[in-house]
Each structure stands twice: as structure tokens, then as C-alpha cells.
Amino acid sequence: MSEIQYQGIRYQLPPGSDLLSALLEQDLRIPNSCRQGLCHACKMIADEGAIPSEAQSGLTDAECIQNQFLSCQCYPISDMSVRLPDDAGKRLTAKILSKTLANGLISLKIEKVIDYLPGQFLTLWKDDINGRCYSIASCSDDAFLEFHIKHVSDGEFSDWLAHDEIATIDVSNLAGDCCYQTASDRDMVLIGLGTGMAPLWGILREALMKGHKGRIIVYNAARESKNLYLYDQLKDISGIECNFSVREHNSERQVDVIDIDEMIDAILEQAAEMDFYICGSENMVKRLRRKIFMAGAMLSNIHSDAFIAAI
Ligand code: FES
């Protein structure tokens, strides 16, 4: 059993526990968000002890040299002495410009306090330790940052956001490389499941704004046709090829029941010449990345963002 020293006190780490969970169990206030190694909100520094290599996955060389690591991904292999980095908790405060809740979705617009690439994500903070990562749905032309957040009625963060009177919110940890950077003439394919369409909406608008020359093909998938997210907005955009995939047909929307995997088969012959952007559940993203790679696309041309279950 490893022993962790934090703020001068030693804690026994239960077998199989990650370091973040063990410290939170002790009611210590360690900032955290995704707990999946994506947002980097839980970074700590090891002053003593070996850092498991997976706890530094995704960190920069400079961060690694400083012995920083992700506490949610750290399963200690020896005793460690750890602390928070000096800039832990460094955040920007943004005014909330609008917040609406409709059809189980919170549409949040906040002051644009940071420059970003459409498709990236930010951590939004409820308080000093509780944050959640959300993809940015706005594009660089917008004068605000927009998020489309699934409301979960017993979810600590989304229920607080939906119902509490809040005038400002803290943001930090801009990250993500599923984004549109420079205009290109290659065909681009956007595949989104549910609110996975939110970052793709920003990417799509950015590509149109920058005068993307290749074809733009959109696949918007949902389990039920009534849940096709951004359905009306996508249908109204000219110059793009929009396809909808559902498993169950249960509304007045004229959408064929067809599986997303089956639907994209139609374009896979040209996969090597296309850029792909895939956002949605982890399972779907993994499955489609593999399918598209096996069809001949280079991994560097498959950009993806797997969503964490909403809470
Ligand atoms: S909480 Fe550890 S990386 Fe997000």
C-alpha cells in the first residue's frame, strides 16, 4: 500500500485507488473535473516518489520536467509527496449573457474571455473544486462563448447551472484538438451523435466562414428522431450535404431509420482524401475512428472528441 504525503499529512492509499479519489475521500479540496485525463484540472506536482507514466499522458514536456501529473490518472507505484501547482485554481471569470433550458438542454452564452478554436473545450467551474468540461459551440466570428449542455435533473453541475441564479462563471483549461484551423479544399465529413453536434456546429460555421472549398458532408445521429439535435438549423444551411441517422422514428420528422455506421459506408471509398471530425459517446467515436482508419484515412486526418457522460 502506497503512502501519500500532502500538506504535511500522510495518507494510506487504498489498493487500486487513484490518487485524486483517495485525497477527495479525505475531504481535501483538490480541483477536478472529467476524471478521465482530458481536462487537466486535477494537475499536481510530485516532490518525491515515482510518477507512473500514464499519469503524464497528454502533458507537455515542460510540465513533465516539472514533475506535474494528472492525479485522476495516477495509480502510485511507490510512496509520493505531492502538492498543487502554484497556478492551480487560476481561472477567468466570465459574465453570463444568457441561459435557457428547453427540451432537456441548457443553452449558455457567456462573455468571450478567451481566444479559442471552434471545437475545443473548456472547464466550467461551479466552485473551487467542482468543474465540468464542455465543448464550445460558437465560432470565432461570435462575440460570445456558447455551450449546449445536457441537463441531468439529479446531476450536481448541470442542475446547478440550470436553476441557480448566477451572474458569472469561472472557466479554465482550454483544450482539445478536434477543431478547424485553416481553410482547405479537402472534403470534410462531420459526424455527431446527440449533443456531439455542438462542437461540430462551431466547426461547420467556421469552415463556411473561412470559405471551405471542398464538400462538407454532415452526419447527425440520434437514437430517436425527436432528439436530432440542431435538426432545423442544419436543414437550413445551403451548400452542405446533410444526412440524419436515427434508430427509432417517433416524430413528424421525415427521417429514415438507418444506422450511422451503415450510412457512412457510402463515402468510405474516398476516406483517404477526406478530413473527418467525430464527436459523441466514447463507444461511437472509437468504433468510427477505427472504421474510417481501416477504410484508408490517415489518423492525423481523423479528429475526434469523445464525450464524458453528463452529470
Ligand atoms: S480531472 Fe483529471 S484530467 Fe480531468
Rounded to the nearest angstrom, the distance between the terminal CA atoms is: 32 Å
- The CATH architecture designation of the largest domain is 3-Layer(aba) Sandwich
What is the helix fraction of residues, given as a range? 10-25%
Biggest pleated sheet: 6 strands, antiparallel
Global Rg: 21 Å
Give the cofactors and ligands: FE2/S2 (inorganic) cluster
Structural class: alpha/beta
CATH domain class of the largest domain: Alpha Beta
Number of domains: 3
How would you state the average pLDDT, rounded?
90
CATH topology of the largest domain: Rossmann fold
The residue ranges in which pLDDT falls below 50 over 5 or more consecutive positions are none
Strand segment count: 16
CATH superfamily of the largest domain: Nucleotide-binding domain of ferredoxin-NADP reductase (FNR) module
- Which series of helices and strands comes N to C? EEHEHEEEEEEEHEEHEHEHEHE
Shape: globular
Counting DSSP H or I runs of 4 or more residues, the number of helices is 7
Strand content: 25-35%
Order of strands, widest sheet: 9-8-11-6-7-10
Protein architecture, described:
This protein is α/β, with parallel strands linked by helices and 311 residues long. It has 3 domains: 3-83, Ubiquitin-like (UB roll) (Roll), CATH 3.10.20; 92-175, Elongation Factor Tu (Ef-tu), domain 3; 187-307, 3-Layer(aba) Sandwich (Rossmann fold). The protein is 18% helix and 33% strand. The chain contains 7 helices and 16 strands. The chain has helices at residues 19-25, 61-65, 156-163, 197-209, 231-235, 260-264, 282-294, and strands at 3-6, 9-12, 43-48, 68-70, 80-83, 92-102, 105-111, 121-125, 131-135, 144-150, 168-175, 187-193, 216-224, 241-248, 274-281, 302-307. The strands form 3 sheets. A 6-stranded antiparallel beta sheet has the order 9-8-11-6-7-10, with helices on one face. A 5-stranded mixed beta sheet has the order 2-1-5-3-4. A 5-stranded parallel beta sheet has the order 14-13-12-15-16, sandwiched between helices. A hairpin with a 2-residue loop joins β1 (3-6) and β2. The longest helix is centred in the middle third of the chain and has 13 residues, at 197-209. It is globular, with a radius of gyration of 21 Å. The mean pLDDT is 90. FE2/S2 (inorganic) cluster binds next to loops. The site of FE2/S2 (inorganic) cluster has 12 residues, from loops.
